[in-house]
Specification:
mainly alpha, single chain, about 10% strand, 2 strands, about 140 residues, Arc Repressor Mutant, subunit A
């Protein structure tokens, strides 16, 4: 692949990511959550077992202190709870509260509607090809870390 196409691919991927998140953020504004907060809630909802604060930070892709501030805010809103880990007093397990579940359902509904709109005109084979390319690039990135 010529360098110019690789550059365009990287630029388009970054633009797509930013624009998709910005549009989702715009649609979720009525829920009173910042992008950082709804992202933490969605990541937390996808764990099958309550993660530690460290596991959640890794999943979301933020540093521990940043996540701690977000969790403070979400906890004050009554959306998450922190529980001490018996084996490690320094660690905390993060759990969604019952009041968070309807909010997460709203977030998921809005996110799914946007996803359906964004994939109009994209065929299954095109999507598979794009995913395969992204997976190869991601694999190459992971080899660097």
């Amino acid at each position: 692949m010529p360098f110019i196409d690789q550059h365009r691919f990287g630029t388009q991927l970054a633009q797509l990511s930013r624009a998709w998140r910005a549009e989702l953020d715009r649609r979720l504004a009525s829920l009173g959550l910042s992008q950082a907060r709804w992202l933490v809630l969605l990541h937390l909802a996808r764990f099958t077992e309550s993660p530690t604060q460290r596991e959640l930070a890794k999943s979301v892709g933020v540093e521990g202190p940043t996540l701690a501030r977000l969790l403070d805010s979400l906890e004050s809103q009554g959306l998450v709870k922190r529980h001490a880990v018996v084996e490690d007093r320094r660690a905390k397990k993060i759990m969604l509260s019952a009041t968070a579940m309807p909010l997460i359902e709203q977030i998921e509904t809005i996110a799914n509607a946007l996803r359906i709109e964004l994939f109009v005109g994209v065929g299954e084979e095109e999507l598979r090809t794009a995913m395969a390319v992204h997976a190869k690039v991601l694999n190459n990135l992971e080899k660097k870390s």
